[in-house]
C-alpha cells in the first residue's frame, strides 16, 4: 500500500526491513538449536522422574529420595542457562528490530519532508502531508506486527522442534507392525513350532549374543519345558515366538496365550483386565476363567467384585495379580500357551490349584514352559536344558534323569515333587476372605478429599511464586516501563512532526525533520535496549522459577506418604504430566502478568479444568501402554489400546474446542479493538478540532498514544485465556508443593544404636484407599534381636503389609510397632530406614555374594554398564540378584527379604540362599517366602491367616502341630 500511494517513499520506508528478516532468520535458527538442547535436557530429567515415581517404594525404602532429587537437579541444571540464552537472543532480536523500525520512521519522515517541500510549487504534487501520513501509518502498523512476530520466534521454533520429533515417530515404520493387515493369518493353527539355527542379540546389546544356533522342534500338542541357569535365553525364546523381536511372516499372537514371569495388569476393572485377553468375552466366560485360575473367590469377596478398579502400579498382591494374568491367558483358549514362571509368585496352596488348572489347560494344545521349579515341569513331554544360548540336553524327565547330565545334577540340587494332599475347603474359603492385601480404592473416582481441591489463586498469588526472583522481576519491569513510556514519546514526536509540515520556512522544516529522525533513532535504541533488558530479565526469572518449582514439586511428591501414591488421581502418568506441564504454564505467563489487564472469565476457568482432566486421562493411558508394551504385543491388543487412547484424545479435543471458540472471539475482539480505536480517535479528534478549537497537535499526539496503547490492550486481552490456565495450573502446583505428608516422617529419635528388636502390638490396619477392608486384625508378633523370622501364609494374607508397616510406608490404624522399645512413629524415617540399608561399599563383594559378579564382568562395560529404563534387557533372575546385592552391600542391621529368591534358578538360589544365611547371622532378618525350603531353618516361622498370626514356632514344631503349615509343607515335600 505504501508503494501504491508513493512508490519512491514506500521503497525507502521498507528498505531497512530485509535486515529485520535476516536478523529474525538468524535468531530463529539459534532458537531452534537452543530449543532442541532444552527439550533434550527436559526429556532426560523427565525419564529420571518417571523411573523414580514408578519405583517409589524402592526409592523410599532405600532412603534414596535425596539422591534422586540430586540426580534430578543435575539433569535439570543445563535448562536454566539454555532458557536464559533463549531470552537473551530474543532480546537481541527485539533490539535490532526496534532500531530498524525507528530508523525507518526517521528516514521516512525526513525523505517525505524533502519530497513535500520539492512538490510545493507543483500544481499536482505527488507528495503531500496526507500521503506521508498514509505511508507512516502503514509503516507503523507493519512495524508493530513485525515486532510481535519477532517475539513469537521462540515459540515458533520450539513448536517446529517439537513437531519434528513427533513426526519422526509418526513416520517411523516398524519391521514388526502389529497393525499391518498384510501377511498370512493362521486361523486353524495346530501348534507345530520349529526354531531353525536361531542367532539373536537384543537390539540394545548387539555385542552380547543371547541365542547361538538354537534349534528346537515342538510337535502339536506337546508340552515342552525350558530349564537352565538364569539369563541363558529361555525367556528370549518365548519372546521370539511371540514376534516381539525376530520377525516372521505369520500372525501368531492371536493364537498365543502368555503368562509372564512378572504379571502386568492395567489400570481398569478386574473384569476388563481379564477381558483384555479376549475383547468379545462375556461375563460368564470371565468368571469361568477366573475360577480355573483360582482367583474367583477373592474377587467375589471384594466390595465391587469384578467391577473393582485396580491400579497398574500395585493394588493387588503378587499372587493375586499372577492369577488374574493366568485367567486373562486362559480366556483366549489359545493354540499355543506360553508359561514364563507362571506360578513363581503364588503361595503353596494357590500354586497347586493353579498348576492343576494349567495342567488341564495344556491338554491338546502346544505349551512352552519356562520354570525354575522342577516340580512344575516333570510331566512335560520334552524338557530342554538351555545353557549359554544353546540346547545342552533335551528329552523327557525320565530320559534326562537316566542321562545323568546337567538336568540330573540340577534336579538333585533342588528336586521338587507335587504331593497329592489337598488343602481343606475351610482354608480355601479363608484365602478368599484374607486375600485383600490391596491398596487401590475400588471407587477412587468418587474419593476426592478436600485436600485435593485445587487452590483458587489470584494474579497476586502467582506473582508471589516469583518472589525469590524479585531482582530479575524488577529489572524486567523497568525494561517494560521504559518500553511503555516510549510510546507516548513517539506520539509527541509524531505530533510535533505533523505540526512541522505546516511551517512555511523550508530550511527550518528540513533541519527539524533531520533532528526528528535522529531523535527517533535514539528512541529506537532506547526501546530496543529496554526490550533486551525485559526479555533477558524475564527469561532469567522464568528459567530460575521453572527450575526451582520443578525441584520443589518433585521433592514434595517424594515426601508424600505411600497412601497418596495409591490413589488413581496420583498415578505415575498423571503426576508426570502435572509437574512437567503446569510449571511451564506458570512461567509462560510472567510477561502477561506484568502490565497486563486483570481479567479472567469463569467459562475459561471451567473449560481449562475440563481440558486438564481429559488430557490427564489420555496421558495415563499412553504412559501405561508404553510401559507395558510387551504385554500388549503378546495379547495382540495394540488396536484396542489405540482406540481407547483415541477416545480420550477425542474427549480432550471436544472439550478444548469449546474453549477455543470462545478464545477465538476474545482474540478477534482484541485485534479488532485496534481499528475501533483508530476510528474513535480520529473521528472524535476531528470533531474537537472543528467545534471546540482544540490544538490539532495535541489531538494528534493523543491519538497516536491511544492507538499504540490499543495494541498493548489487544495483546493483553488475547492472552487472558492463557492467564486463566496459568492460575489454574498454579493452584494445582501450590496444592502439591504445600501438601505435607499425613505421616510424621521427621521424628526426633535417631536409630544410631538400634539393635534390631521388633515388636508388633495389636496391629489393625486397612489401606487408606480401602478403609472398609481390614488387612491386619489385631496382629501380635515379637522379633528378638538377631532372630531370623519367616512370614508365610496364603497369598494376600498380609505378609508384605507387615514389612511395609515396619518400613513406615504406612502407619497402623490401631496398635504400635516398637523398635528397640521405641515406637517407629517416633523415629526419624530416614534414620530408621538407613538401619535397614547402610550406604554403598564393597560393590564387587556384594555382587559375588549374590552370584551376579561373573555375569557383570562379562558385560562389555562391566560394572559401568548402564541398565537403561527399567533394566528391561536383563532377565528376571538377573534383576533379582542385582537387587539382592543392593541390599547386602549396606550391611544392614535389619534385613528384609520379600520373595528374594523367587526368580532364581535352582543353582543360583542355592548359592544366594547360602549367602543370605551367612549375612543374616548376628542381625535381625525378616523373610517372606512361598517356598518353605528357604525358611525351614528360620528361628521363628509365623503363619499368617486372616490378618493375624495363626501359628508360630520353629519348622519342626509347626510340623508336629499338624496345622496349616504342615499342609502347606506337605505340598512341597523335599526329597
Can you walk through the features of this model?
The chain is α/β, with parallel strands linked by helices and 975 residues long. The protein has 3 domains: 455 residues, ABC transporter transmembrane region fold; 208 residues, 3-Layer(aba) Sandwich (Rossmann fold), CATH 3.40.50; 163 residues, 3-Layer(aba) Sandwich (Rossmann fold), CATH 3.40.50.300. It is 56% helix and 11% strand. The chain contains 35 helices and 21 strands. The strands form 6 sheets. Strands 6-9-10-4-11-12 form a 6-stranded mixed sheet. A 5-stranded mixed sheet has the order 18-19-15-20-21. Strands 14-13-16-17 form a 4-stranded antiparallel sheet, covered by helices on one side. Helix 25 packs antiparallel against helix 26. It is elongated and about 125 Å long.
Q: How big is the Rg?
A: 36 Å
Percent of residues in helical segments? 55-70%
Query: How many runs of DSSP E, i.e. beta strands?
Result: 21
- Structural class estimated from helices and strands: alpha/beta
CATH superfamily of the largest domain: ABC transporter type 1, transmembrane domain
CATH class of the largest domain: Mainly Alpha
Arrangement of strands in the largest sheet: 6-9-10-4-11-12
What general form does the structure show?
elongated
Average pLDDT metric: 73
Domain ABC transporter: 193-413, 760-971
Subcellular location: Membrane
Protein name: ABC-type xenobiotic transporter
Family: Belongs to the ABC transporter superfamily. ABCB family. Multidrug resistance exporter (TC 3.A.1.201) subfamily.
Amino acid at each position: 500500500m505504501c508503494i501504491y500511494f508513493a512508490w519512491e517513499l514506500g521503497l525507502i520506508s521498507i528498505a531497512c526491513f530485509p535486515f529485520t528478516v535476516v536478523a529474525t532468520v538468524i535468531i530463529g535458527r539459534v532458537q531452534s538449536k537452543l530449543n532442541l538442547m532444552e527439550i533434550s535436557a527436559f526429556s532426560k530429567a523427565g525419564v529420571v522422574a518417571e523411573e523414580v515415581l514408578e519405583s517409589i517404594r524402592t526409592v523410599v525404602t532405600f532412603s534414596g529420595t535425596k539422591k534422586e532429587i540430586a540426580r534430578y537437579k543435575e539433569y535439570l541444571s543445563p535448562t536454566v542457562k539454555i532458557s536464559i540464552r533463549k531470552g537473551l537472543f530474543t532480546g537481541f532480536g527485539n533490539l535490532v528490530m526496534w532500531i530498524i523500525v525507528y530508523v525507518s520512521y526517521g528516514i521516512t519522515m525526513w525523505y517525505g519532508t524533502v519530497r513535500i517541500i520539492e512538490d510545493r510549487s507543483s500544481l499536482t504534487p505527488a507528495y503531500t502531508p496526507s500521503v506521508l501520513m498514509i505511508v507512516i501509518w502503514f509503516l507503523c502498523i507493519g512495524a508493530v506486527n513485525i515486532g510481535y512476530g519477532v517475539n513469537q520466534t521462540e515459540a515458533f521454533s520450539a513448536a517446529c522442534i517439537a513437531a519434528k520429533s513427533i513426526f519422526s515417530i509418526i513416520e517411523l515404520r516398524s519391521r514388526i507392525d502389529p497393525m499391518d493387515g498384510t501377511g498370512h493369518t493362521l486361523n486353524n493353527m495346530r501348534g507345530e513350532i520349529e526354531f531353525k539355527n536361531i542367532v539373536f542379540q537384543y537390539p540394545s546389546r548387539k555385542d552380547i549374543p543371547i541365542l547361538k544356533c538354537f534349534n528346537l522342534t515342538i510337535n502339536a500338542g506337546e508340552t515342552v519345558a525350558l530349564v537352565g541357569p538364569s539369563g541363558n535365553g529361555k525367556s528370549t525364546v518365548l519372546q521370539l515366538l511371540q514376534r516381539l523381536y525376530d520377525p516372521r511372516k505369520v500372525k501368531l499372537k492371536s493364537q498365543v496365550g502368555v503368562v509372564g514371569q512378572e504379571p502386568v495388569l492395567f489400570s481398569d476393572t478386574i473384569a476388563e483386565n481379564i477381558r483384555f485377553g479376549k475383547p468379545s468375552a462375556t461375563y460368564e466366560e470371565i468368571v469361568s476363567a477366573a475360577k480355573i485360575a483360582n482367583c474367583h473367590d477373592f474377587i467375589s469377596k471384594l466390595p465391587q467384585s469384578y467391577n473393582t478398579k485396580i491400579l497398574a502400579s500395585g493394588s493387588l498382591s503378587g499372587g493375586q495379580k499372577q492369577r488374574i494374568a493366568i485367567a486373562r491367558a486362559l480366556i483366549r483358549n489359545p493354540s499355543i500357551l506360553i508359561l514364563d514362571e507362571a506360578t513363581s509368585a503364588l503361595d503353596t496352596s494357590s500354586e497347586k490349584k493353579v498348576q492343576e488348572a494349567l495342567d488341564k489347560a495344556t491338554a491338546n494344545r502346544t505349551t512352552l514352559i519356562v520354570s525354575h521349579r522342577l516340580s512344575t515341569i516333570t510331566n512335560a513331554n520334552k524338557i530342554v536344558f538351555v545353557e549359554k544360548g544353546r540346547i545342552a540336553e533335551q528329552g523327557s524327565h525320565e530320559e534326562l534323569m537316566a542321562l545323568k547330565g546337567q538336568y540330573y545334577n540340577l534336579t538333585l540340587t533342588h528336586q521338587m515333587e507335587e504331593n497329592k494332599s489337598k488343602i481343606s475347603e475351610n482354608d480355601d474359603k479363608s484365602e478368599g476372605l484374607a486375600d485383600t492385601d490391596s491398596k487401590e480404592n475400588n471407587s477412587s473416582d468418587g474419593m476426592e478429599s478436600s485436600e485435593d481441591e485445587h487452590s483458587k489463586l489470584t494474579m497476586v498469588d502467582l506473582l508471589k511464586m516469583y518472589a525469590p526472583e524479585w531482582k530479575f522481576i524488577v529489572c524486567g519491569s523497568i525494561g517494560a516501563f521504559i518500553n511503555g513510556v516510549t510510546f507516548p514519546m513517539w506520539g509527541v514526536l509524531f505530533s510535533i512532526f505533523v505540526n512541522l509540515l505546516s511551517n512555511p520556512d523550508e530550511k527550518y522544516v528540513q533541519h527539524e525533520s533531520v533532528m526528528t529522525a535522529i531523535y527517533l533513532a535514539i528512541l529506537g535504541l532506547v526501546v530496543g535496549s529496554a526490550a533486551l533488558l525485559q526479555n533477558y530479565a524475564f527469561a532469567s526469572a522464568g528459567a530460575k522459577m521453572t527450575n526451582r518449582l520443578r525441584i520443589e514439586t518433585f521433592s514434595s511428591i517424594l515426601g508424600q506418604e505411600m497412601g497418596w501414591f495409591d490413589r488413581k488421581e496420583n498415578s505415575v502418568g498423571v503426576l508426570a504430566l502435572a509437574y512437567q506441564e503446569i510449571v511451564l504454564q506458570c512461567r509462560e505467563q510472567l510477561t502477561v502478568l506484568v502490565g497486563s489487564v486483570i481479567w479472567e472469565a469463569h467459562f475459561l476457568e471451567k473449560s481449562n479444568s475440563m481440558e486438564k482432566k481429559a488430557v490427564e486421562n489420555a496421558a495415563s493411558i499412553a504412559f501405561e501402554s508404553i510401559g507395558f508394551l510387551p504385554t500388549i504385543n503378546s495379547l495382540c491388543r495394540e488396536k484396542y489400546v489405540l482406540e481407547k487412547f483415541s477416545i480420550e484424545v477425542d474427549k480432550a479435543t471436544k472439550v478444548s474446542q469449546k474453549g477455543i471458540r470462545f478464545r477465538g472471539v476474545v482474540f478477534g475482539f482484541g485485534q479488532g479493538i485496534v481499528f475501533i480505536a483508530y476510528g474513535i480517535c480520529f473521528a472524535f479528534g476531528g470533531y474537537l478540532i472543528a467545534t471546540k478549537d482544540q490544538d490539532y497537535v495535541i489531538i494528534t499526539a493523543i491519538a497516536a498514544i491511544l492507538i499504540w496503547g490499543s495494541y498493548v490492550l489487544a495483546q493483553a486481552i488475547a492472552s487472558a485465556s492463557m492467564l486463566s490456565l496459568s492460575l489454574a495450573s498454579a493452584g494445582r502446583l501450590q496444592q502439591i508443593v504445600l501438601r505435607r505428608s499425613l505421616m510424621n516422617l521427621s521424628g526426633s529419635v535417631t536409630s544410631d544404636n538400634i539393635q534390631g528388636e521388633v515388636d508388633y502390638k495389636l496391629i489393625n490396619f486397612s489401606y487408606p484407599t480401602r478403609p472398609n477392608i481390614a488387612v491386619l486384625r489385631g496382629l501380635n508378633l515379637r522379633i528378638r534381636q538377631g532372630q531370623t523370622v519367616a512370614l508365610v501364609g496364603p497369598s494376600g494374607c498380609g505378609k508384605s503389609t507387615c514389612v511395609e508397616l515396619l518400613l513406615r510406608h504406612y502407619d497402623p490404624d490401631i496398635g504400635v510397632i516398637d523398635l528397640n522399645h521405641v515406637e517407629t512413629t517416633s523415629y526419624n524415617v530416614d534414620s530408621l530406614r538407613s538401619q535397614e540399608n547402610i550406604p554403598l561399599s564393597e560393590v564387587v563383594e556384594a555382587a559375588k555374594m549374590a552370584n551376579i559378579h561373573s555375569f557383570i564382568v562379562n558385560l562389555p562395560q562391566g560394572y559401568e554398564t548402564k541398565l537403561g529404563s527399567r533394566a528391561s534387557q536383563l532377565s528376571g533372575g538377573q534383576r533379582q540378584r542385582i537387587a539382592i546385592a543392593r541390599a547386602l552391600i549396606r550391611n544392614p542391621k535389619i534385613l528384609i527379604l520379600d520373595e528374594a529368591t523367587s526368580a532364581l534358578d535352582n543353582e543360583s538360589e542355592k548359592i544366594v540362599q547360602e549367602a543370605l544365611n551367612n549375612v543374616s547371622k548376628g542381625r535381625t532378618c525378616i523373610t517372606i517366602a512361598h517356598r518353605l525350603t528357604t525358611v525351614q531353618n528360620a528361628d521363628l516361622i509365623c503363619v499368617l491367616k486372616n490378618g493375624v498370626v495363626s501359628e508360630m514356632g520353629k519348622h519342626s514344631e509347626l510340623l508336629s502341630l499338624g496345622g496349616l503349615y504342615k499342609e502347606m509343607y506337605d505340598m512341597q515335600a523335599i526329597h
